[in-house]
């Protein structure tokens, strides 16, 4: 009888201990699920909050584009902006559909601003204050963050998620890489010194503006340019000056590689003149902006 009671008592303790472990595991599992649910909720709210600046600033951009837009890319902005609003609303109603549309619109913003962002990184990245002010930075950093968060929230397949995030990163990188060899058109003010019918060579001086102290100069011997200066230029204090001089500046990121003179006022040169940076003297930094 005593042995039986002891056996029963020990058995009850073992069973009670087992049920206690199960209860603790269930409790821990419930806490984990609650924490996961809270984390998912917070991520959803963060995604919605980060979408708001794009919607607000996108409204201003879209209104400007509708009034003054020139290119096809600019006219796509209002469409992407409207799609962003739709995605934002859908995240409250149908989260999966909303996040899917949001990822697509983020790719749209990245495509629209990749080139501007590349220009920003090339010429103004050293000015830290501009990082918070430039739209090109805002419309790349915010969409990248949203793509990352939305993909983490929506896509369960790791390979697919990695592909989406990698592609989103690739777009601004391509925009930056496009500045490796790029030609910009610049309009300057030109002066031609020692120009007359009897001279073969003369001095060409190219200023940022009529009264600007920034200029570069080079010895020239183009008969075509001399003829245009003599016939269309304005003579003033020993030299001829011409407005609206067009230069094509070929750059490797922020470094000038080549300068090409293509137009003097309204006259296109039949034989454009190219100079390497080492050929000219003076300041050429103003040609970068």
TrEMBL record:
The keyword Membrane applies. The chain crosses the membrane at residues 49-69, 75-93, 100-119, 131-149. It comes from the Bacteria. Keywords: Membrane, Transmembrane, Transmembrane helix. This is Uncharacterized protein. It comes from Phaeodactylibacter luteus. The lineage of its organism: Bacteria, Pseudomonadati, Bacteroidota, Saprospiria, Saprospirales.
């Amino acid at each position: 009888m005593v042995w039986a009671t002891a056996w029963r008592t020990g058995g009850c303790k073992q069973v009670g201990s087992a049920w206690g472990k199960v209860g603790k595991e269930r409790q821990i599992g419930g806490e984990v699920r609650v924490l996961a649910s809270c984390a998912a909720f917070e991520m959803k709210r963060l995604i919605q909050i980060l979408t708001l600046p794009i919607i607000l600033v996108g409204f201003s951009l879209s209104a400007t584009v509708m009034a003054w837009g020139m290119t096809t890319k600019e006219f796509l902005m209002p469409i992407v902006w409207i799609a962003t609003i739709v995605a934002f609303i859908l995240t409250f109603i149908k989260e999966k559909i909303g996040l899917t549309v949001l990822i697509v619109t983020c790719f749209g913003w990245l495509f629209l601003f990749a080139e501007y962002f590349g220009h920003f990184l090339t010429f103004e990245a050293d000015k830290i204050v501009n990082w918070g002010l430039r739209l090109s930075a805002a419309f790349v950093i915010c969409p990248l963050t949203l793509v990352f968060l939305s993909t983490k929230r929506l896509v369960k397949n790791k390979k697919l998620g990695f592909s989406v995030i990698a592609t989103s990163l690739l777009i601004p990188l391509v925009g930056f890489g496009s500045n490796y060899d790029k030609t910009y058109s610049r309009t300057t003010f030109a002066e031609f010194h020692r120009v007359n019918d009897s001279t073969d060579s003369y001095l060409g001086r190219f200023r940022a503006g009529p009264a600007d102290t920034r200029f570069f100069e080079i010895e020239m011997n183009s008969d075509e340019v001399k003829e245009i200066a003599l016939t269309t230029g304005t003579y003033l204090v020993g030299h001829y000056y011409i407005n609206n001089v067009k230069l094509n500046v070929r750059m490797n990121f922020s470094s000038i590689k080549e300068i090409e003179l293509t137009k003097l006022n309204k006259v296109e040169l039949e034989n454009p003149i190219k100079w390497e940076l080492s050929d000219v003297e003076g300041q050429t930094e103003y040609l970068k902006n």
